[in-house]
Amino acid sequence: MSLKVMQRWVLENILYKVRVSQYSIGFVKNEKGSPLVQCAERHKNNLYILKMDLKNFFPSVKRGRVYNQFLQLGYNTYASNLLTNICTLNGSLPQGAVTSPYLANLVCYKMDIRIAGYCNKRDITYTRYADDLVFSCDNRDMLRKIYGMIKKIVEDEGFVVNEKKTRFLSPKVHKEVIGVTVNDGVIKAPKEMKRMVRAMIHHEIVTGDYSDNEKIRGYIAYIDSLEKNYRNKIIKYIEKYLDDTITLFPELVQKFIQNKLYNQIPNMKEHDILSFIAMEDAENYYSMVVNEREEYLSRHGIVI
Predict the structure, then answer these.
(1) Nearest in space to 302 (alpha carbons), one of 234, 202, 198
(2) pLDDT at 173
């Protein structure tokens, strides 16, 4: 039996039966809707947002904490040690293991309760999506004041705040909540992501390289889950681009027709967007795609 199969068994038969805190979003069995949307929904009506990030989230959950977690679930020392061996690597939770997110959520239960207890007394909304901590309220000064105490609680619980990623968002700017944009209570996908999707489609058409189909479909389905009819807008974008291209480069249009991207857009399912590209890298990826496209056009003497 492979390690992945054993980890999946532990997740399905042990971990999923244990409740995580109500402030933890994502990685829950039979979760309804996108966790990013769920998070944004809880914060969308508040004026100010504070975002904090935990540095080296999974590696910070050491073997001993995982072992103690299984002991607390009622397993004896032998079973707890065996389960810990299945779920850890090199002394901590490994990136990519199916058990890591849920175990991290269980380990964070006490931290979530402590933070929420502090925030609830001050009428501040708190959520955590893996290593992303989000706070919101209508009192700007109050939100700024909580940073020191939240950092202390986080450190007490064995984690470290990534101060470079701490952000305070006011109503004057679009409020971004872990991968979605909230403005005037309306949830949308970030503009950078939508620009990137169009650039990737453009790149595929002009180069004839459709290796990013799955990635593109995942982004389109994700954005459509936030903004209804986005798929139709993308289809119209493709149709317009093809109309402008067909007389100049019929061979590229024929390649596109032979490809399944266009036909699959209406029926595709949402992919986990975070497993493709982290949002913080979206603009860099967008720039890379644009540069590759321009180099290709220049190399082949194509003027658009």
Answers:
(1) 202
(2) 59
